[in-house]
Amino acid sequence: MRSTPKNIAILGATGSIGRNSLQVIKALPDRFRATYLVVRRNVDGLMDLVAEHRPKGVALLDEAAADAFRQKAGDSLEVLSGAKGVKEIVGRDDVDLVISALVGFAGLEPTLEAVRKRKTIALANKETLVAGGELITRLVQEHGVDLIPIDSEHSAILQCLVGEEPASVAKLILTASGGPFLTTPVERLASVTVEEALNHPNWKMGNKITIDSATLMNKGLEVIEAHWLFRLPPERIDVVIHPQSIIHSMVEFVDGSVKAQLGLPDMKLPIQYALTYPNRTPMNGARVDFPGIQSMTFFEPDRRKFRCLELAYGALQLGGTAPAVMNAANEVAVEAFLDRRISFQKIPDLIGRTLDAHAPGPVSELNQILEADHFARSHARSLLS
Ligand SMILES: NC(=O)c1ccc[n+]([C@@H]2O[C@H](COP(=O)([O-])OP(=O)(O)OC[C@H]3O[C@@H](n4cnc5c(N)ncnc54)[C@H](OP(=O)(O)O)[C@@H]3O)[C@@H](O)[C@H]2O)c1
After folding, report:
1. Atom of ligand 1 minimally distant from the CA of 102
2. Are 80 and 199 contained in the same domain?
3. 161: in domain
4. Distance 247 CA to ligand 1 centre (A)
5. How many structural domains does the chain have?
6. How does pLDDT run across 308-364, given as a tens digit for each residue?
7. How many CB atoms are located within 10 Å of the residue 39 CB?
8. Quick one: which atom of ligand 1 is closest to the CA of 41?
9. Do 145 and 176 have their domain in common?
């Protein structure tokens, strides 16, 4: 018997994860349907996606952009707007699964709403767990929600853990490509350009995560994300540089055995795994060609050169609101770097100084996270000016 396709709401449809998700969904029309698309303000990009994927409705966070979209689209589909519109879509009865792929802290509240409405969540927005991990994971448990990671490292760990007892896990090993400045001398980092930082060697992603990859903050955010998803303390989550990005992460077990998940650097694979979890479905595309790879290398990250990684471990150790503060300061710093207002090396400075100015508090309620985020943004901005 054929079942009806699962209705999916994609938050961040115009982004890199959003567009890859739409391709995965399009290739499996009997299984999935892109029912709602949510973006911030990219009117033309959304118009193109609507023409191709024919969702029932859309939402734009930006009210002015939503008005512009309504004028172009007419009454061919439902158009909602603002945070309220996004919240409404996430909670609708005709949404079975939410792909959370907005960028940054903006992903937290819609994801929280999806948890409250007991939707299955495929999570790309790592900032949600960095800023609100304690609250989100508590509510996920209370509401019995499936929260499945899309991030390739966490998808790899999830795949390695299938069939294993939690007590047999010794540690998680997250792999990192090392980004575009892996071999750049530390003295050169102060003068690297935005274009150089955006030139990631292996992955094609949105601008914010690409800069995070260049500073290694992305790996720091992933350590915190892994802590909340897999419930291990920071000292049992390691990072290893693996420039070829073929091994997406590993799990070491108590007997010394190590399982790794391998694949080409293409986000469609972890996205499809999150949608079909715990099953697998055939997927077309290139396969790992081992003789073609020839060698895979691994080494320790240089934590003095890439200070953001150390800042993230420190924030996780501090706990409470510290990771939310670090996340917000990082968003301000990355935006300032992309706007060419600060140098690459000022990114960790700004985050470190904002963390130093904050006394971590508890994070059991949303308003505590929002206040910490607000404090960090204003403090980091005051340091910029
Ligand atoms: N790209 C990857 O390969 C990858 C891998 C793992 C995890 N992730 C995570 O997935 C999330 C999305 O990454 P991405 O690379 O797909 O980002 P992206 O290409 O920059 O797309 C971001 C999406 O979010 C919207 N957006 C941008 N700024 C926003 C803001 N300030 N508030 C609310 N919405 C905003 C954009 O809408 P408009 O187009 O309307 O501006 C777009 O739909 C991030 O949390 C990232 O860390 C990405």
Report:
1. 24
2. no
3. no
4. 24
5. 2
6. 999 999 999 999 999 999 999 999 999 999 999 999 999 999 999 999 999 999 999
7. 26
8. 40
9. no
